[in-house]
Design brief:
This protein is 35% helix and 19% strand. By secondary structure, it is α/β, with parallel strands linked by helices. The strands form 8 sheets. Strands 8, 9, 10, 11, 12, 13 and 14 form a 7-stranded mixed beta sheet that branches. Strands 2-1-20-21 form a 4-stranded parallel beta sheet, with helices on one face. Strands 6-5-7-15 form a 4-stranded antiparallel beta sheet. A hairpin with a 5-residue loop joins strand 8 and strand 9. Helix 19 packs across helix 20, helix 21 packs parallel to helix 23 and helix 23 runs antiparallel to helix 24. The longest helix has 19 residues.
Length: 800
């Protein structure tokens, strides 16, 4: 038969949909498998090849699981709130709801054209009020438990989007949405206390199957460190400057302190600070810098000494200067640090610039040249002198700090609490009310969802105020407690809110009484396999794990961790080896490939192009190669022979079943496809195959190229859908060749090859080797000195 993909593919997509072939069944007696992919943001640009690769891994796994007899939940939905849609709405004067609905429809049609086996009966949309009712419910539960708070702080602010950004959304000092420079701005911000769950998030990584680099990135982002809190007195005051250090053993080497320019100590003692004008100028300059700019290690060291106040080193009683410098942030630690210039390069550079003493307390290196950051014997450290092990030095210092009441052991985290609001329209309304009498009050649960009002003007205010603040009918309300006049919170939630729990809603998407029925959660959770990109490891994954741990603590879900396994896909680069971008003109539209070569070709190619977890450039000739492979597969229907088994192909078939089955589980999709390509070469070389063998072949290929294989199965008279047929099994005994062929050397030079029965003993192999014509000639008339046989590798006969 011909590979007429333009006819075949729509036909089978319609049949799958008509028969609801991929709909999951709650409480089935079959073993369950919950496969998950990161649901897409439905942008106007539609689907790109990155989506195809990202979804193809769990797609193949899910199709294989169904054929293995599993009840498979493989859902899809849309993460549709966010700034891109709102910005487009403002630009085109179109309501975001209208834009979102059109984009979702377009995206859904594109996904169906590629033949993904999603359960379309469970589609979710984070902008649907029936969905975000439960996003708001979770938020209120966190509010009840004290995990929601409001604070005035310096925040990352995007002047272009007019919105506050979390650290995760402004990495590198750039807005994650529009890529503009981020600035620091004093604002009142809602936060979620994610730091309360830092230890649980770290401990949970021990119980999940994540790639090592994923675990490492999450551990680094959380940034747990053990050390000590130490109190430094401010001279001639009752004030204490509390610092945190991971190296309390170096306290005798502290020669200055640095505090954040925003530290309240400065304003409190402004009358004592004689150079307040210089301090004020420096503070003003700091407000113009982003957090990213301020904390860069490689930059000019700037700062101002606070003339008129100083600190006392609690270990030796020495007076030390206090500086302000931009690299110290109020949001990290205590907003004050101790500086040990002999053993920290940044402190060393700062001390050299400002002429501050440098006291070495660990022997080693040359502190005239640079800081010594290695280990060694403690010196100039009183009771620590002579200690050689860092662990022992720290332990003794912690004991001393406790004995003297000047410090204590402690733990710190690099991760900060999550800035959880946006001053924009297109997001989940925050269900809180500001009452002049009662304070901040929760919207009653029975009034959820608190829906977005329908408005025409989505422009944020000039000062970054939410568009909702302009709508009196929305803002003005009644306090649920005292029934007095009150005002609604007008900020909305960030885009990450819905994606922090969406995988739970797939389990029970139409439930109006709870986010998901507990019996269904008990059946389906945890997610068995979750695939996504590395870019979401430190944001979405940490956020969603945090929410899930919280929901577990309040008894709303049945598992501590949401995802049992995580895998990662690599990027698809442009044909030029560069990251795809419109400006470079190297973007590949997947629908163009579907139109020219078919969906099965696209599906096969994106998994054949290289290691699934690595980046790989697009290659048009390889796409054509995959198309030719599928044409050869279609041609197998014209090569069917009578019988059940082709003796010459039997071992090759069992080997291929074993390899494809194993490679799919290990996400080695490229080598699984290569094995099928190798087998088809053997089939063509042999001149044909039997009908049962062809059915085995198309079953193995079905997860990769389901349309063509379904068509072949139907032509062969197959019963039902191939996608739901039984996965092939292999016989281990038949994965071994009946004979082996290895090289034979005489005095280290190859003289021929010998074929012998698999499992033959040494004597048999040597006897057969000596009868090989080239070998027999080489040893004729000579004395055999040594016979070497490396099983299944080589024979070497030494003669003289």
């Amino acid at each position: 038969m011909r590979h007429n993909f333009k006819k075949i593919e729509p036909k089978w997509q319609a049949k799958w949909e008509e028969q609801k072939a991929f709909n999951a069944a709650d409480f089935s007696d079959k073993p369950k498998f919950y496969g998950l992919v990161e649901f897409p943001y439905p942008s106007g640009a539609g689907m790109h090849v990155g989506h195809i690769k990202a979804y193809s891994s769990v797609e193949v796994i899910s199709r294989k699981r169904r054929m293995q007899g599993y009840n498979v939940l493989f859902p899809i939905g849309f993460d549709a709130f966010g700034l891109p849609t709102e910005n487009y709405a403002i630009k085109t004067a179109t309501h975001p709801r209208e834009i979102t609905d059109k984009n979702i429809e377009r995206f859904s049609n594109q996904l169906k054209k590629v033949g993904f086996s999603f359960d379309w009966s469970r589609v979710i949309d984070t902008t649907d009020h029936n969905f975000y009712k439960w996003t708001q419910w979770i938020f209120l539960k966190m509010f009840e438990k004290g995990l929601v708070f409001r604070d005035t702080a310096l925040v990352n602010y995007c002047p272009s989007c007019k919105v506050v950004l979390s650290n995760e959304d402004s990495q590198g000092g750039k807005c994650d949405i529009c890529h503009s420079d981020v600035v620091q701005k004093q604002k009142t911000v809602w936060y979620l206390r994610i730091t309360e769950y830092a230890d649980k998030l770290l401990d949970g990584l021990k119980d999940v199957d994540y790639p090592a680099n994923v675990k490492q990135q999450q551990e680094n982002w959380i940034g747990r460190s053990t050390g000590a809190f130490v109190n430094f007195s401010v001279k001639d005051t009752d004030e204490k400057l509390k610092i945190y250090t991971t190296r309390p053993d170096t306290l005798f080497g502290v020669t200055f302190m640095v505090i954040a320019p925003e530290h309240p100590l400065i304003d409190k003692y402004a009358d004592k600070i004689s150079n307040m004008d210089a301090v004020t100028d420096y503070r003003t300059e700091c407000t113009k810098k982003t957090e990213f700019e301020r904390t860069q290690l490689v930059k000019d060291k700037t700062g101002v000494k606070l003339e008129g106040i100083s600190a006392i080193n609690p270990l030796n009683g020495k007076e030390i200067p206090i500086f302000i410098a931009d690299y110290v942030m109020m949001g990290y630690g205590t907003g004050a640090i101790m500086a040990v210039p002999a053993h920290d390069q940044r402190d060393y550079d700062f001390a050299k610039k400002f002429g501050i003493d440098i006291i070495q307390v660990i022997k080693g290196g040359d502190i005239e040249v640079e800081a010594y950051t290695g280990d060694g014997e403690m010196i100039n450290s009183d009771f620590l002198n002579g200690f050689t092990k860092k662990k022992d030095s720290i332990k003794r210092m912690l004991e001393y700090l406790a004995e003297e009441g000047i410090g204590e052991a402690g733990v710190q985290y690099k991760m900060k609490d999550w800035a959880f609001n946006r001053q924009r329209y297109w997001g989940e309304p925050i269900p809180l009310i500001h009452c002049p009498s009662c304070g901040i009050v929760a919207v009653p649960y029975e009034e959820l969802p608190l829906e977005l009002p329908k408005i025409d003007n989505f422009e944020p205010g000039a000062d970054g105020e939410s568009p909702l603040a302009k709508i009196d009918s929305y803002v003005n309300c009644t306090c649920p407690k005292c029934k007095g006049a009150a005002k609604r919170e007008t900020d909305t939630m960030p885009q990450w809110a819905g994606s922090s729990w969406y995988f739970l809603r797939y389990i029970d998407p139409n439930n109006d009484n709870s986010l998901a029925d507990m019996d269904k959660l008990n059946y389906w959770m945890p997610v068995d396999w979750y695939n996504g990109g590395m870019e979401h490891v430190t944001r979405h994954m940490i956020y969603s794990r945090f929410w899930h741990h919280f929901l577990y603590d309040i008894g709303a879900v049945n598992t501590e961790e949401p995802y049992a396994k995580r895998s990662i896909q690599g990027l698809i680069l442009g044909p030029d080896g560069e990251k795809m971008s419109k400006s470079k003109g190297n973007v590949i539209d997947p629908l163009d490939i579907v139109e020219e070569y078919g969906a099965d070709t696209l599906r096969t190619y994106v998994l054949f192009m290289g290691d699934y977890g690595a980046a790989a450039p697009w290659n048009d000739s390889s796409v054509k190669g995959c198309k030719r492979f599928l044409e050869r597969v279609a041609g197998l229907t014209d090569m069917i022979k009578d019988g059940e088994v082709t003796k010459e192909l039997e071992v090759k078939f069992h080997k291929t079943i074993k390899k494809v089955s194993s490679d799919i589980e290990e996400t080695k999709f490229n080598t699984a496809i290569a094995a099928l390509m190798g087998l088809i070469n053997d089939i063509y070389s042999n001149g044909g195959l039997t009908k049962p063998e062809l059915i085995t072949f198309i079953k193995l290929l079905c997860p990769f190229a389901p349309h063509l294989t379904e068509e072949i199965y139907e032509e062969l008279g197959g019963d039902g859908l191939l996608s739901l047929a039984e996965w092939p099994e292999y016989d281990e005994a038949k994965t071994v060749d009946s004979s082996m062929e290895i090289g034979v050397q005489v005095n280290g030079k190859l003289k021929g090859t010998v074929v012998y029965p698999t499992g033959a003993d040494k004597d048999t192999v040597l006897d057969l080797a000596k009868k090989v014509s080239g070998v027999a000639t080489a040893i004729d008339g000579k004395t055999v000195v040594k016979e070497i046989y490396v099983p299944n590798k080589i024979v070497n006969i030494v003669v003289k």
